[in-house]
Design goal:
CATH topology: MetI-like fold
Number of helices: 14
Helix content: over 70%
Number of strands: 0
Distance between the termini: 65 Å
Structural class: mainly alpha
Mean pLDDT: 82
Low-confidence stretches: none
Radius of gyration: 28 Å
CATH class: Mainly Alpha
Order of helices and strands: HHHHHHHHHHHHHH
């Protein structure tokens, strides 16, 4: 009898533990659903303007301004035909591509040595100068640069736009790469120097390959900021070197706004950057986080 009583006492708490486990699991499920709802609301809020832009690019002028807006309609490609046939957007696309790629390449050539110098030799003055170039509003440099390029005959050239876009892209490259270079153990470089490698060989064969994700991240950010730059292009470029953000103004006149053409042009500008971001997002995430941890 005593043995049975002890057995009952040992087994009695089990149902309470089971009930508690079910309660915890239920709360975790509710929390998971709530988290999903919040994520969907936030993503929907930020995606709504993009979806509206894409849908409007396939609508006629009357359909765009209809209230309430139509979700189901007969799509038209006329807006895209106008963008490429009447506005010479293919040339503007090429201009943006050349200027973005050129400024990014030159930014890497100048920014990687600067970042390595800041990381290894603690050149705080150089770091402060590059930081100030990014903090100071770009319009501060606009008039002096315009006067300089006009004197040198470089207004409306790729070179002037590539050089001015360095003010936007190169600081990002430097400040993305500094943590990467600082995270590389100095013993690796010292071992290579002991083996007879020159400083240039150490950088090219050890430092840069290890820092690959950071280089990709810095290059992508520099290219995106160059691609979207408006201020320098509107002053230093004319029809021959006009870039996409400036070309959008072709659809805005004193009398009216071509909303269909404007939306189609916005899609043309956004789509390459969006595809680039989707293809390289894991490299960007890795590049932005890997250099944050030393050792």
């Amino acid at each position: 009898m005593a043995t049975q009583t002890q057995s009952d006492a040992l087994l009695r708490p089990a149902p309470r533990v089971a009930v508690k486990s079910r309660s915890v699991g239920k709360r975790a499920g509710v929390a998971g659903v709530g988290h999903l709802v919040v994520v969907l609301v936030v993503v929907g809020f930020f995606m709504l303007p993009f979806v509206w832009m894409v849908l409007s690019s396939f609508k006629s002028a009357l359909q765009i301004i209809e209230l309430p807006p139509r979700l189901f309609f007969a799509p038209t490609l006329q807006n895209y035909v106008n963008v490429f046939a009447t506005q010479n957007f293919a040339q503007y696309f090429w201009n943006s591509l050349v200027i973005g790629a050129g400024s990014t390449a030159l930014g890497l050539v100048l920014g990687l040595p600067a970042a390595y110098s800041i990381a290894r030799y603690k050149q705080h003055g150089l770091a402060l100068a590059i930081l100030m170039a990014r903090i100071v509003p770009g319009i501060t440099f606009l008039i002096p640069l315009f006067i300089l390029f006009r004197t040198l005959g470089l207004v409306d050239t790729y070179l002037s736009l590539i050089l001015t876009h360095l003010l936007v892209g190169m600081p990002f490259i430097v400040w993305v790469m500094v943590p990467f270079f600082e995270a590389i153990p100095l013993s690796l470089e010292e071992a290579a120097r002991v083996d007879g490698a020159s400083m240039l060989q150490v950088v090219l064969r050890i430092v840069l390959p290890i820092s690959g994700p950071g280089i990709v991240t810095g290059a992508i950010l520099a290219f995106v900021f160059s691609w979207n730059n408006f201020m320098f292009s509107i002053v230093l470029a004319t029809n021959r070197t006009k870039t996409l953000p400036v070309a959008v103004y072709n659809f805005i006149s004193y009398a009216q706004i071509d909303w269909g053409g404007l939306m189609a042009a916005a899609v043309v500008i956004t789509l390459p950057v969006l595809i680039l971001a989707l293809l390289t997002q894991r490299y960007v995430v890795k590049g932005l986080t890997a250099g944050a941890v030393k050792g």
